[in-house]
Amino acid sequence: MMFSTVLVVLLYVVVGSEAMHAKSSTSPTLSYWHLNLPTTPIPDALRELISPLSYEKTSELLDAIREGKKVSMGEPDPTSKFGRKGGPDSLVIKASNRNYGSSADDADIIADPFLSTFYFLEKDLHTGTKLTLYSTLLKRSSPDSRVFFLPRRLAEAIPFSSDKLSVALEKLDISQGSDTALAMNQTLKRCEGPANSWERKYCATSLESMIDYATSTLGTSSLNVLETNVPCKLESQKYTITAIPFQSKSGSKPVVCHSETYAYAVYYCHESQHITTARVSLKGEDGSSGEGVAVCHMDTSGWNPQHLAFKVLNVKPGGAPVCHFVPNGEVLWLPAH
Protein backbone atom coordinates (compact mmCIF):
# COMPACT_ATOMS: atom_id res chain seq x y z
CA MET A 1 0.00 0.00 0.00
CA MET A 2 1.54 3.30 -1.08
CA PHE A 3 0.96 6.62 0.63
CA SER A 4 1.45 9.93 -1.16
CA THR A 5 1.99 11.72 2.11
CA VAL A 6 4.22 10.58 4.94
CA LEU A 7 3.85 12.01 8.41
CA VAL A 8 5.94 10.52 11.16
CA VAL A 9 4.40 11.24 14.55
CA LEU A 10 6.30 9.90 17.51
CA LEU A 11 3.74 8.48 19.90
CA TYR A 12 6.37 7.10 22.22
CA VAL A 13 7.27 9.75 24.75
CA VAL A 14 9.35 9.37 27.86
CA VAL A 15 6.95 10.80 30.39
CA GLY A 16 7.97 11.86 33.89
CA SER A 17 5.50 11.40 36.70
CA GLU A 18 4.64 15.11 36.86
CA ALA A 19 3.88 15.28 33.15
CA MET A 20 1.84 12.11 33.37
CA HIS A 21 -0.36 13.46 36.16
CA ALA A 22 -0.71 16.81 34.40
CA LYS A 23 -2.18 15.16 31.31
CA SER A 24 -4.08 12.33 32.94
CA SER A 25 -7.21 14.38 33.45
CA THR A 26 -7.71 14.59 29.68
CA SER A 27 -6.66 11.03 28.87
CA PRO A 28 -9.52 9.14 27.18
CA THR A 29 -8.14 5.87 28.55
CA LEU A 30 -8.02 7.08 32.14
CA SER A 31 -11.49 8.61 31.83
CA TYR A 32 -12.83 5.26 30.59
CA TRP A 33 -11.37 3.46 33.60
CA HIS A 34 -12.94 5.86 36.10
CA LEU A 35 -16.27 5.73 34.29
CA ASN A 36 -16.49 1.94 34.21
CA LEU A 37 -14.55 1.02 37.35
CA PRO A 38 -15.18 3.94 39.70
CA THR A 39 -14.32 1.99 42.87
CA THR A 40 -11.36 0.03 41.49
CA PRO A 41 -7.85 1.48 41.99
CA ILE A 42 -5.62 1.31 38.91
CA PRO A 43 -2.65 -0.99 39.58
CA ASP A 44 0.77 0.54 38.96
CA ALA A 45 1.50 -1.99 36.20
CA LEU A 46 -1.36 -0.55 34.10
CA ARG A 47 -1.23 3.07 35.22
CA GLU A 48 2.36 3.36 34.00
CA LEU A 49 1.29 2.33 30.50
CA ILE A 50 -1.62 4.74 30.07
CA SER A 51 -0.91 7.00 27.12
CA PRO A 52 -0.43 10.71 27.90
CA LEU A 53 -2.34 11.56 24.70
CA SER A 54 -5.29 13.88 25.29
CA TYR A 55 -8.65 13.61 23.54
CA GLU A 56 -7.55 16.38 21.17
CA LYS A 57 -4.22 14.79 20.27
CA THR A 58 -5.86 11.39 19.86
CA SER A 59 -8.29 12.89 17.34
CA GLU A 60 -5.43 14.54 15.43
CA LEU A 61 -3.53 11.25 15.15
CA LEU A 62 -6.68 9.38 14.17
CA ASP A 63 -7.27 11.88 11.36
CA ALA A 64 -3.66 11.39 10.21
CA ILE A 65 -4.13 7.62 10.00
CA ARG A 66 -7.40 7.99 8.11
CA GLU A 67 -5.65 10.27 5.64
CA GLY A 68 -3.12 7.54 4.90
CA LYS A 69 -0.26 9.05 6.86
CA LYS A 70 2.19 7.00 8.91
CA VAL A 71 2.49 7.12 12.67
CA SER A 72 5.68 5.76 14.19
CA MET A 73 6.24 4.46 17.70
CA GLY A 74 9.90 3.72 17.31
CA GLU A 75 11.41 0.26 17.35
CA PRO A 76 10.43 -1.93 20.32
CA ASP A 77 13.02 -4.45 21.45
CA PRO A 78 11.51 -7.89 20.67
CA THR A 79 13.72 -9.57 23.29
CA SER A 80 12.29 -7.41 26.04
CA LYS A 81 9.29 -8.51 28.06
CA PHE A 82 7.88 -5.00 28.00
CA GLY A 83 8.67 -4.08 24.43
CA ARG A 84 11.49 -1.54 24.38
CA LYS A 85 15.21 -1.76 24.77
CA GLY A 86 16.23 -1.74 28.40
CA GLY A 87 13.41 -3.91 29.76
CA PRO A 88 14.22 -7.22 31.47
CA ASP A 89 14.45 -10.33 29.32
CA SER A 90 11.22 -12.30 29.39
CA LEU A 91 12.28 -15.59 30.93
CA VAL A 92 8.68 -16.08 32.01
CA ILE A 93 7.27 -15.54 28.54
CA LYS A 94 10.05 -17.60 26.95
CA ALA A 95 9.02 -20.69 28.86
CA SER A 96 5.34 -20.08 29.29
CA ASN A 97 3.32 -20.80 26.16
CA ARG A 98 0.60 -18.91 28.08
CA ASN A 99 0.47 -21.58 30.74
CA TYR A 100 3.70 -20.78 32.58
CA GLY A 101 5.57 -23.82 31.40
CA SER A 102 5.86 -25.99 28.34
CA SER A 103 7.83 -29.03 27.35
CA ALA A 104 11.25 -27.55 28.09
CA ASP A 105 13.79 -30.29 28.67
CA ASP A 106 15.87 -30.84 31.78
CA ALA A 107 18.85 -29.06 30.26
CA ASP A 108 16.79 -25.88 29.98
CA ILE A 109 15.77 -26.15 33.64
CA ILE A 110 19.33 -26.67 34.81
CA ALA A 111 20.61 -23.81 32.66
CA ASP A 112 18.03 -21.39 33.98
CA PRO A 113 17.76 -21.31 37.80
CA PHE A 114 14.81 -18.92 37.56
CA LEU A 115 12.68 -21.57 35.90
CA SER A 116 13.59 -24.18 38.50
CA THR A 117 12.25 -21.97 41.31
CA PHE A 118 9.23 -20.51 39.53
CA TYR A 119 6.77 -23.17 40.69
CA PHE A 120 5.84 -24.37 44.17
CA LEU A 121 3.20 -26.66 45.66
CA GLU A 122 -0.05 -25.47 47.23
CA LYS A 123 0.90 -27.13 50.51
CA ASP A 124 3.73 -24.60 50.78
CA LEU A 125 1.40 -21.61 50.46
CA HIS A 126 1.36 -20.62 54.12
CA THR A 127 3.08 -18.22 56.48
CA GLY A 128 6.68 -19.07 57.24
CA THR A 129 7.46 -20.63 53.86
CA LYS A 130 10.70 -19.40 52.30
CA LEU A 131 10.86 -19.08 48.50
CA THR A 132 13.70 -17.97 46.24
CA LEU A 133 12.48 -15.31 43.80
CA TYR A 134 14.42 -13.85 40.88
CA SER A 135 14.45 -10.24 39.70
CA THR A 136 13.00 -11.38 36.36
CA LEU A 137 9.76 -12.15 38.18
CA LEU A 138 9.69 -8.98 40.27
CA LYS A 139 11.04 -6.14 38.10
CA ARG A 140 9.03 -3.98 35.76
CA SER A 141 10.61 -2.05 32.95
CA SER A 142 12.16 1.37 33.43
CA PRO A 143 10.18 4.37 32.08
CA ASP A 144 12.36 4.68 28.97
CA SER A 145 11.79 1.05 27.98
CA ARG A 146 7.99 0.94 27.96
CA VAL A 147 5.39 1.09 25.27
CA PHE A 148 2.06 2.75 26.03
CA PHE A 149 -1.48 1.58 25.50
CA LEU A 150 -3.04 3.38 22.56
CA PRO A 151 -6.40 5.03 23.22
CA ARG A 152 -8.95 2.57 21.85
CA ARG A 153 -9.94 4.72 18.88
CA LEU A 154 -6.34 4.71 17.67
CA ALA A 155 -5.83 1.01 18.33
CA GLU A 156 -8.96 0.12 16.36
CA ALA A 157 -7.74 2.18 13.39
CA ILE A 158 -4.66 -0.07 13.02
CA PRO A 159 -5.22 -3.64 11.75
CA PHE A 160 -4.46 -6.32 14.34
CA SER A 161 -4.32 -9.59 12.39
CA SER A 162 -1.57 -11.61 10.78
CA ASP A 163 -3.12 -11.35 7.32
CA LYS A 164 -3.00 -7.54 7.56
CA LEU A 165 0.34 -7.24 9.33
CA SER A 166 1.92 -5.56 6.30
CA VAL A 167 -0.72 -2.82 6.47
CA ALA A 168 -0.10 -2.31 10.18
CA LEU A 169 3.67 -2.15 9.63
CA GLU A 170 3.14 0.45 6.91
CA LYS A 171 0.94 2.58 9.14
CA LEU A 172 3.36 2.28 12.05
CA ASP A 173 6.45 2.95 9.92
CA ILE A 174 8.08 -0.36 10.91
CA SER A 175 10.31 -2.16 8.41
CA GLN A 176 9.15 -5.44 6.89
CA GLY A 177 11.38 -8.28 8.04
CA SER A 178 12.75 -6.37 11.04
CA ASP A 179 13.06 -8.02 14.45
CA THR A 180 10.13 -5.92 15.59
CA ALA A 181 7.96 -7.09 12.69
CA LEU A 182 8.85 -10.72 13.43
CA ALA A 183 8.00 -10.29 17.12
CA MET A 184 4.68 -8.67 16.23
CA ASN A 185 3.87 -11.58 13.93
CA GLN A 186 4.58 -14.07 16.73
CA THR A 187 2.25 -12.17 19.06
CA LEU A 188 -0.49 -12.16 16.43
CA LYS A 189 -0.11 -15.92 15.94
CA ARG A 190 -0.51 -16.48 19.68
CA CYS A 191 -3.56 -14.26 19.75
CA GLU A 192 -5.14 -15.99 16.75
CA GLY A 193 -4.33 -19.54 17.86
CA PRO A 194 -6.99 -21.80 19.41
CA ALA A 195 -7.69 -21.42 23.11
CA ASN A 196 -7.05 -24.26 25.51
CA SER A 197 -10.11 -26.29 26.43
CA TRP A 198 -10.20 -24.80 29.94
CA GLU A 199 -10.04 -21.12 29.07
CA ARG A 200 -11.52 -18.19 27.21
CA LYS A 201 -8.86 -15.95 25.73
CA TYR A 202 -8.67 -12.46 24.29
CA CYS A 203 -5.89 -10.11 23.16
CA ALA A 204 -6.51 -6.58 24.41
CA THR A 205 -5.03 -3.91 22.15
CA SER A 206 -6.11 -1.11 24.48
CA LEU A 207 -6.79 -0.76 28.18
CA GLU A 208 -10.41 0.05 27.35
CA SER A 209 -10.82 -3.30 25.58
CA MET A 210 -9.17 -5.08 28.52
CA ILE A 211 -11.70 -3.46 30.86
CA ASP A 212 -14.58 -4.57 28.64
CA TYR A 213 -13.29 -8.14 28.46
CA ALA A 214 -12.78 -8.40 32.22
CA THR A 215 -16.17 -6.95 33.15
CA SER A 216 -18.07 -9.02 30.57
CA THR A 217 -16.25 -12.24 31.47
CA LEU A 218 -16.59 -11.80 35.23
CA GLY A 219 -20.11 -10.42 34.96
CA THR A 220 -19.60 -7.37 37.16
CA SER A 221 -18.02 -3.92 37.19
CA SER A 222 -17.16 -4.31 40.89
CA LEU A 223 -13.66 -5.71 40.47
CA ASN A 224 -10.30 -6.00 42.14
CA VAL A 225 -7.16 -5.92 40.01
CA LEU A 226 -4.19 -7.56 41.72
CA GLU A 227 -0.50 -7.31 40.84
CA THR A 228 2.79 -8.53 42.24
CA ASN A 229 4.67 -5.57 43.68
CA VAL A 230 7.85 -6.49 45.53
CA PRO A 231 10.96 -4.24 45.61
CA CYS A 232 13.93 -6.11 44.18
CA LYS A 233 17.52 -4.88 44.27
CA LEU A 234 19.24 -8.25 43.91
CA GLU A 235 19.21 -10.80 41.11
CA SER A 236 17.67 -13.28 43.53
CA GLN A 237 17.05 -13.75 47.23
CA LYS A 238 14.88 -15.72 49.63
CA TYR A 239 11.51 -14.25 50.60
CA THR A 240 9.41 -15.38 53.55
CA ILE A 241 5.61 -15.47 53.38
CA THR A 242 4.60 -13.34 56.37
CA ALA A 243 0.83 -13.21 55.78
CA ILE A 244 -1.90 -14.14 53.32
CA PRO A 245 -4.38 -11.20 53.45
CA PHE A 246 -6.66 -12.73 50.82
CA GLN A 247 -7.29 -16.18 49.37
CA SER A 248 -10.09 -17.05 46.98
CA LYS A 249 -12.28 -20.08 47.20
CA SER A 250 -11.76 -23.06 44.92
CA GLY A 251 -13.69 -22.76 41.68
CA SER A 252 -13.07 -19.07 41.08
CA LYS A 253 -12.43 -18.06 37.48
CA PRO A 254 -10.28 -14.94 37.48
CA VAL A 255 -9.01 -13.22 34.37
CA VAL A 256 -5.22 -13.08 34.04
CA CYS A 257 -3.60 -10.67 31.58
CA HIS A 258 -0.02 -11.16 30.33
CA SER A 259 2.01 -8.48 28.55
CA GLU A 260 3.01 -9.22 24.96
CA THR A 261 5.74 -7.82 22.70
CA TYR A 262 4.22 -5.42 20.17
CA ALA A 263 4.68 -1.92 18.79
CA TYR A 264 2.29 -0.69 21.49
CA ALA A 265 0.96 -2.26 24.70
CA VAL A 266 -0.95 -5.48 24.03
CA TYR A 267 -2.08 -7.95 26.69
CA TYR A 268 -3.06 -11.58 26.28
CA CYS A 269 -5.96 -12.14 28.69
CA HIS A 270 -7.64 -15.41 29.56
CA GLU A 271 -10.18 -16.73 32.01
CA SER A 272 -8.76 -19.68 33.90
CA GLN A 273 -10.78 -22.42 35.58
CA HIS A 274 -9.97 -24.67 38.53
CA ILE A 275 -7.60 -22.25 40.19
CA THR A 276 -7.38 -20.39 43.47
CA THR A 277 -5.66 -17.06 43.97
CA ALA A 278 -4.04 -15.43 46.95
CA ARG A 279 -2.51 -12.09 47.87
CA VAL A 280 0.68 -12.90 49.73
CA SER A 281 2.80 -10.61 51.93
CA LEU A 282 6.51 -11.23 51.38
CA LYS A 283 9.64 -10.13 53.24
CA GLY A 284 13.08 -10.45 51.70
CA GLU A 285 16.34 -11.33 53.42
CA ASP A 286 17.47 -7.74 52.82
CA GLY A 287 14.51 -6.43 54.85
CA SER A 288 12.42 -5.32 51.86
CA SER A 289 8.75 -6.21 51.79
CA GLY A 290 5.91 -6.27 49.30
CA GLU A 291 2.97 -8.29 48.02
CA GLY A 292 2.82 -11.10 45.49
CA VAL A 293 -0.17 -12.57 43.70
CA ALA A 294 -0.08 -16.36 43.82
CA VAL A 295 -2.10 -18.57 41.48
CA CYS A 296 -2.66 -22.26 42.25
CA HIS A 297 -3.87 -24.63 39.53
CA MET A 298 -6.08 -27.19 41.28
CA ASP A 299 -6.61 -29.50 38.30
CA THR A 300 -3.57 -30.25 36.12
CA SER A 301 -4.99 -33.44 34.58
CA GLY A 302 -5.27 -31.80 31.16
CA TRP A 303 -1.72 -30.44 31.11
CA ASN A 304 1.03 -31.78 28.87
CA PRO A 305 2.83 -34.55 30.81
CA GLN A 306 6.09 -32.86 29.81
CA HIS A 307 5.02 -29.59 31.44
CA LEU A 308 7.92 -27.84 33.11
CA ALA A 309 6.15 -27.72 36.50
CA PHE A 310 5.95 -31.50 36.72
CA LYS A 311 9.68 -31.82 36.15
CA VAL A 312 10.56 -29.17 38.69
CA LEU A 313 8.18 -30.35 41.44
CA ASN A 314 8.32 -34.08 40.71
CA VAL A 315 4.55 -34.41 40.46
CA LYS A 316 2.26 -35.88 37.80
CA PRO A 317 -0.72 -34.51 35.85
CA GLY A 318 -3.79 -34.49 38.07
CA GLY A 319 -1.67 -34.68 41.19
CA ALA A 320 -0.85 -32.00 43.76
CA PRO A 321 -1.97 -28.45 42.86
CA VAL A 322 0.76 -26.35 41.23
CA CYS A 323 1.29 -22.71 42.20
CA HIS A 324 3.29 -19.76 40.90
CA PHE A 325 3.38 -15.99 41.31
CA VAL A 326 1.95 -13.69 38.65
CA PRO A 327 5.00 -11.79 37.33
CA ASN A 328 5.26 -8.08 38.00
CA GLY A 329 3.79 -6.11 35.12
CA GLU A 330 0.94 -8.58 34.64
CA VAL A 331 -2.44 -8.39 36.36
CA LEU A 332 -5.20 -10.60 37.72
CA TRP A 333 -8.85 -9.50 37.68
CA LEU A 334 -11.52 -10.96 39.98
CA PRO A 335 -14.87 -9.90 41.46
CA ALA A 336 -14.47 -7.55 44.43
CA HIS A 337 -16.58 -9.77 46.70
Automatic annotation (TrEMBL):
> What SMART domains does the entry give?
BURP (SM01045)
Please give the InterPro entries that the UniProt record associates with this protein: BURP (IPR044816), BURP_dom (IPR004873)
Signal peptide range equals 1-19
Highest taxon of source: Eukaryota
User: Where would I find the BURP domain in this sequence?
Assistant: 119-336
Q: Which UniProt keywords apply?
A: Signal
Name by which UniProt lists this protein: BURP domain-containing protein
Instruction: Tell me what organism the protein belongs to.
Output: Picea sitchensis (Sitka spruce)
The upper taxonomy is: Eukaryota, Viridiplantae, Streptophyta, Embryophyta, Tracheophyta
